[in-house]
Each structure stands twice: as C-alpha cells, then as structure tokens.
Amino acid sequence: MKIKNITIQGFRGFNEERNIDFHDRLTLIYAPNSYGKTSISEAFEWLLYGITSKVEKADSKEEYKGSYRNRHLPESLTPFVKATFVDDDENETEFNGDLAEDETIQRFVNGQEVESWPLAQDISKVPRPFILQHALKYLLLVRPDERFQGFAHLLGLEKLDLFQRNVVSLCTKPDACIPAEVNQLLKNVSALEACLASQPSLATIQKAFKKGITGLAEAYEIVASECRQRVPPETEEKSVLPQLLKVREDAVAKIFEGRIALPHYSEEEKHANSEDENFFLICIVDSFVKKYTELLALSIVQHTLERAEFFDLGIKLLDKTPGKCPFCGRSIDDALVKHIHDEHANLATEKKRNEALQKQRTEIIKLLAELKSRLAAYQNRHKDKVAQLFALEPTLDKLKTILVPKYQTHFNEVETTILELTTAKNNLETSYSKVLGALAKVETSVTESEEDAALVKVLGETLAEYISDARSYVRTVIGKVSVMSDAAQILKHELDALAGTEDISVLIDLLEQRCNVKKKFEIKGILDGLKALRKSVDQYVANRVLGAISEELTSEVMEWYKQIKTKGDPDVHFDGFDMERTTKGELKARRVQIKARSYGKELVSAVSSLSESKLNALGLCVSIATNLKGESPFDFLIIDDPIQSWDAEHEIQFIEVIRRLVERGRQVILMSHSRKWIDMVRSGCRTINGRFYEITGYTETGPHIAEIPWDRWTERLKEVDAIVKDPTATSVKLQQAEEEIRIVNAELTSELYFKIKGVRKNPHDLNSTKVRKMLVECGIENGLVDRITQTFETTDDAHHASVDYAAHRQRIQRYHAWAHELAKLLKDSHEA
Amino acid sequence: MNNKTTSQDFPCEKCLDELLVELSDPVHKRLIQAYRGNDPVQSMESELANVLIEVLNRED
Q: Contact B8/A522, CB-based, under 8 Å?
C-alpha cells in the first residue's frame, strides 16, 4: 500500500492541523533543521506501531514521557495523526490514531474504532518502512552483541536470537533451576569429598575420584581395601560396614552420644501430607455438612417409626379379623379399611427414607473415625520429624563444650532451631487439640442423635486453622534442614577428631553414600554438559545467521552499495558480511563481521576502516536492502535526512538510488535539511514529476508548509518543444511530452484562475472536468476550453493512460500548440 | 484492503527441529524440546529441574 496523504494535529512538532498530500512515486520535503521534518516520519511510525523507534530504543523511556503531545496544543484538543492509504486496487483506507491521555494510541479505521490495524500480516515482523537518521547508530556503530541483535532484527531472526540468549543464560547460570534437594545432595557429597581430602591416608581414593564418574569403580575398590584394613581379618564382606560403624560409635560414644538430625520430608512423606490435607479439606466441604445436617431429620421422624411399628402390628391383626377391629371387635367398613392400608403404605415410605438416613449416619460415623485416625497419623508425622533433634536438648551443655568456641555460630543455630521448632510444635499441638475437641463433639452429636450444624462449623474452622498451622510448621522445619545438616557435619567431624576415627568415618560415609556419590557425578556431568549444549546452539545459530547474511543480505546490500559507491581514492570499501571465526575456523557466537577491502586486500573490519560517510552509506544500503527483501504490506519508504555527514560524491550517487527505488515501485518520501541537495534530487528525478514541499517557517502553531511546483511550466514547455521538434524522439519520450503538456495545462489553469478569481487551486488535484470548469469561470472562449480539455482525453481522472494508449506525434504537436495558446493568454493577462 | 499475505515470520519451530537433529545428548534434546509454549524459558528451566530430580530419585 502507498500513502495518499497525512494530517497531523498536536503531535510532536505539529500543533495546528496540517495536511500533506503525497505523490504516488516521489515526494520531497525540504526544511532547515528543527522545522518539523522528523515529526512527519515520527507521526507515520507512531500511527503504524503506536511507538516511535526513538522512544522504543531510548535508554530511559521516562525522559520521553509526554513527548508525543505538542506543548502548545490547547487542552481541549486531542492530538491525532490521520493518513489515507491506497492499496494495489486503488481502494482507500483511512487510518486515524488519537493520542490518549495515557500516551497509548486509539485506532480508528474509516471512523470505526479498532483494536489493531486491518493488515493481513503482523507488521511487527516486517522491516519498518523508515530509514531514519539514527538507524546506523543501532546497527553498525554498536557493541558486537548489539550489532548481532540488530542484524537478527533486520533479517527477521529475532526469535532465533532470543532463543540463543535464553539457552546461553540457562547454560551459564543453571543454579536457579537446581532443586533444593539436588543442591543438598551436591553439598553433602562435596562435604564428604572435603573430608576425604583432609585424610592423607586415603589419598589414593581421592586421586581416583578426580577422574570423575569413570574413576568411580576404581575408587570404590580402594575404599573396600581400606575398609578391610580397619576391621578384623576374618570379617565377612557384608559385615564390614556394621563393623566399622561399631568401631566408630564405640569410640565416639565415649565423648558424646547425641545427634544433630533434622531430615527433609521425604517424597513419600510429602505425598502422605498432601493426601491427608486433601482428605481433611473434604471433611469441611459442603457435601459433608449437608449430609450431617440431613441427620437432623432423623429425630423428627422418630415418632413416625413408632407409628409404623404400631401399624405393622395392626395390619397383621386386621388380616386375621376381616371387617372387625382386632382390638375392640367393632365393625369396620371398607372405606376405613382402605384408609388404614393407605396410611400404612405412607408410613412404609417414610420408614425407607429413615433407613437411608440411618445408613448415612453410619457412613458419617465411619468418616469421622477415619478423620480422627488420619489426623493422628498426620500429627505424628510432623512430631516425629523433630523428635531426634529435641532429644538433643538435655545434652546441649555437653554439646556446647565440644562446639564452642570454634563453632559458636553452629551451636547457636542448634539452640535457636530447637527453640523455634518447639514454638512451632506447640502451636501445632494446640490447634490439633482444638480439632480433636471439635471432632469429639461432632461424634457425640451423631451417636446421640443430637446433631447441631454449629458443631460442624466449628470442626471446619478448627481443621482449616490446623492445616494452616501444619503448613507453617513444615516451612519452619524445611527452613532449618540445611543449617542443621551443616551443624551435624561439624559435630561429626569434631567427634571424629576427638575420637581419632576421622578416616573410619570418611570410609563409612563413602560406603553409605555410594549411591549419592554416583548421583553427584551424574548431576555434575549434566551441568557441565550444558557448556556443550551452549556450543551446539551457538554454532547452529551462527550458521543460520551466516546463511542469511552471506547468501541473501550480502548480495542485496552489495547491489545498492554499488550504486552509491564512490569511485575515487582511497579505494576502501565494504566487501560483504560474514561471521567472525576462531583460529580453528569455528564460527564465533554472535559476532557479525562487516568486511572491507582496500586496493584488493581484505581489511580487518569495515567499522574500523570505513569513513563515517561510507559507513553511513552502508547503513543506508542495509536498510534499503532489508526493506525490499521479502514481502511487506508497505510499498512506501520514508527516508529522513540521509545525507547527514556525507561527502559530495555520496550525495550525488544517492540520487540514482532514489530513482531506482521509484523504478522498482517504491513510493519514496524523502526529507532533507539541504535545499541544495533536494534541488539536485528534483533535477535528477525531473521526469518523475513528483511533489515538492518546503517548510518555510516555524511558529507556535507548527510548521508552515508550502508546496512548490516540481518544475516551472516555462521549463516544462521548453522541454516539450525540444521533444516535439526531435524527429528521433521515441514513443516513451513522446508520452513523457504528452504528460508534461497536461501538467503545464493544469498549472496554467491554476495560475489563470488565481489571477482572475483570486483563489489558489492545487494543480495536482486538477483533472479534465475541473480544468474545464475553471477555464469557463475565467471567461475563456469555448474553443480553447474544448481544446485544452481535449489534452486530458488520453488519461483518466487519476492521470493514468488507458491500456490501448499509443503516443502519436501529430496529436502531441497539436496539444503542444494549444498549451502555448493558454500560456499566451496567461502572459497577456499579466501584462494587462 | 488488498494486502500482500506472505510473512517474514521466522519459523522457530522448524529451527528447533533442525537443531534437535544435530544434538546427540538426550538431556540436551529434552531441554531444547521443552523450549515451546507460552513461556519457553520457564518450560526449559523446569525440564532441567526434572532431569536432575530424576537422577536424584533414581533407584540404583
């Protein structure tokens, strides 16, 4: 799609509403610096993306807060940017973006509010159709990693770039992903390895351990051998470990018998806790409460049961004395007999309902018994967890003599932990007692048929409180496991030192923890292996990017660079893209190399070798190439001041690039601060007949934009004269002359109208109908009006030639003569 | 509007599949395979934790 026009109000440098119409091929906008040029490209960016790239890439977004709204726009007005886009089938769509108070954009399509623009593809995934002054800064003159990201973005490889960064982050810093229990294992085995290292007599084991998992079997053969040396020779294989344990325990017990032990909740225990808690919660839910309250009906229907028993007896007796009352012998009529039978049937139904409730009561009694039993198991599981540690309490004084002063902190930790866990345990026991109390009352109410809904409510509340306290208790225990494990290791170490059993202790640990040692090696292997994964991902991504930049981007950028390339000395130029390599030839991760060549020799890097002017030109070529690469819904390209810091030769070369972009179907909107260069572009693209604007001034109201004729009609007529007189002029040239005549006639009509009627009409908006009407209004004689109108006949109102159009020299010569007639009329009116 | 429909969206899934073919380590394969869904980083990190827990809980 192309842009037909844009209207801006209150956005950036624009205050009052301004409109700019664009040529469908080339529009030039000249303005001195700070006159609002960049606001135009920013308005487009904001309209399409809801954010400008300047704000998006800013280090501090805060600095740009409130920068979209023009400070001079009256409070009552809403800033907006509105643009009309035209698709390939000439359908027009108006996109309107209102700047909301929270700086977001409110989108409207043809006046209807929408969530997003109705574009067939996600425009965030195609290159933005803008080439901005600061584009180069973010691509070439940045750190290598940022350059890589810039290229990934240009090539649409952002997801791959992000993937690589995420994998690298995981592989270099996996610690956060290691579960606590795995960390505990690693820590325990590391402590064991440290103890092993401190035993010179066991150095051979340590040496084998250093080989990693491959040395494990060898290490354990030596462990077995060392163990044998420390037990009586006749000891059986299976008795070696118990024998060693006994030796150590006997020696250590002479010094201290207690143990610092606070184990983790095992997976099995965790599962049991979770199952029990779920069961407790079931007991609080509505279905249980409903069932319980239904039992209230039992007491109410009790008398019905008694009546039913009486009726049972009555019916049996009545069957034996038909027509007479079995109790008094009086006669009973058929109606009364039927009534008695009906009443009996009703009572039988009631009885059945009662039986169901009785069954329900039995179930509830069973459920309450199970609740009681599981509560006890749950409570004991938590109590048992700390039992060993609490057993240490009476011997704390003795423990102090062993650990203090060297391990004062660890001793304090043991004391504090016992204290904190005692408090947690007491809390838990208190709430447990409350639950048991509430449960007992509910049980009694059921067994004595005195159900009371309030009792169940209390049971629910106490259960909820108990579960909450239990979870808090578990958190306290888990939080202390690690510190107690450390203290246990210290105590063990100290006791072994005092008892002279350090080597035996290490051997015992090695035997007992053989499985953990193996797991530690495996886990370390997995974690160390992440380096290899990183390398694989680095190489894969580097190869993908290399493919994209060397196979596609290099040739496309080179194509544009050749257009812009300066020819003189020094011969230092861009020579393609590559990925940096190591000395072994492997691709370096995230390192895009921009190659340069000088007089046939490859240079180290373009960034360090090319002049600023050449780097700018290269940046521009990269932007153009990526914009033209692949499919995009945008057929326009907005280029904002490309020639800053360019030398004269690049300025001239770039004009050819603009022409080629137009020829390739791109609608180019080019802005520059250099009037001289813009005039050169206009001259170099003379036959494109685009539109040219000059921002002539700037005040509080915003920029003052004036449209300047692409070329003077006098100049155009001279060119037409030359073509018409040239007998060798091709049909293309003749068609151009015919087009020029129409432009001349539109401009002459516009000037004549202004001269006579005092109203200025834009010649770009004129077609045959409008021209005719204006000439008639100016009082031009009918013959000339008809002739001038006739010059528009070979095109439609949008100035497009019909499919069967053919340039015809005689016709064009006539048109040319008629244009001169109109020109003479204007000249005469000036002289008059 | 009559817009062009071809997208430059990067076929990330395809790349992951290509990479998986190049990897031989089963753990590495699992981690890359986990890089999917709404939060691929979280998914990959969880997978690493799962791998380690499996080693820890394995009965030898």
A: no
Same domain, A637 and A761: no
Mean pLDDT over all residues of chain A?
88
Domain tally, chain A: 3
Whole-angstrom distance, CA of residue A341 vs CA of residue A364:
35
pLDDT, one tens digit per residue, over A275-316 is 999 999 887 776 777 788 777 766 666 666 666 677 677 777
pLDDT (mean) for A414-431:
96
- Residue A58 — very low, low, confident or very high, per pLDDT cuts 50/70/90? low
Same domain, A313 and A434: yes
Contacts of B48 in chain A (CB under 8 A): 170, 174, 177
Residue B20 contacts A where some CB pair is shorter than 8 Å: no
Cβ separation B3–A633 shorter than 8 A: yes
Residues A693 and A788 in one domain: no
pLDDT reading at A672 higher than 90: yes
Q: Which 24-43 residues of chain B touch chain A by CB within 8 A?
A: 25, 27-28, 31-32, 35, 40-41
pTM of the full predicted structure? 0.61
* pLDDT tens readout for residues A516-553: 999 999 999 999 999 999 999 999 999 999 988 887 78
- A166–B35 CB contact, under 8 Å: yes
* Shared domain check, A375 and A306: yes
The predicted structure's pLDDT at residue B60: 67
CA A355 to mean position of chain CA atoms = 62
Of A708, A728, A746, which residue is a domain's last? A708
User: What is the average pLDDT across A462-480?
Assistant: 95
What ranges make up the beta strands (E) of A350-464?
A: none
Q: Which long-range contacts (CB under 8 A, 24 or more apart) does A820-829 make?
A: A820/A717, A821/A784, A821/A787, A822/A745, A822/A748, A822/A749, A822/A752, A822/A784, A822/A788, A823/A713, A823/A714, A823/A717, A823/A744, A823/A748, A825/A752, A825/A780, A825/A784, A826/A748, A826/A751, A826/A752, A826/A755, A829/A752, A829/A755, A829/A756
Statement to judge: residues A433 and A468 lie in one domain: yes
Closest approach of chain A CAs to the CA of B37, in angstroms? 13
pLDDT exceeds 90 at position A441: yes
Q: Which residue of B has its CA nearest to A538?
A: B19
Q: Do B28 and A125 touch (CB under 8 A)?
A: no
Length of chain A: 832
In this complex, which of A93, A122, A176 lies closest to B1 when CB atoms are compared?
A93
Q: Which of B7, B27, B60 sits opposite A515 (nearest CB)?
A: B60
Cα of A429 vs its chain's centroid, Å: 47
Q: Are residue A662 and residue A810 in the same domain, yes or no? A: no
ipTM above 0.90, yes or no: no
Residue B5: per-residue pLDDT: 28
| Cβ count within 10 A of residue A3 | 24
Chain B residues in contact with A526 by the CB 8 A cut-off are 27, 51-52, 55
Query: Per the domain annotation, does A680 fall within a domain?
Result: yes
At A497 the pLDDT is 92
Compute the count of residue pairs across chains A and B with CB atoms less than 8 Å apart: 128
Q: Which domain, by its residues, includes A57?
A: 2-129+632-708
- Asked if residue A228 is part of any domain, the answer here is no
Residue A699 and residue A721 share a domain: no
Confirm if A595 and A576 have CB atoms less than 8 A apart: yes
Q: Is A119 on the interface with B (CB under 8 A)?
A: yes
User: B10 falls in which pLDDT band (50, 70, 90)?
Assistant: very low
Which of A466, A499, A532 finishes a domain? A499
* A636 inside domain: yes
Q: Per the domain annotation, does A460 fall within a domain?
A: yes
| Interface contact flag, B41 A170, Cβ < 8 Å | yes
Both A825 and A744 in one domain: the answer is yes
- Residue A246, pLDDT > 90, answer yes
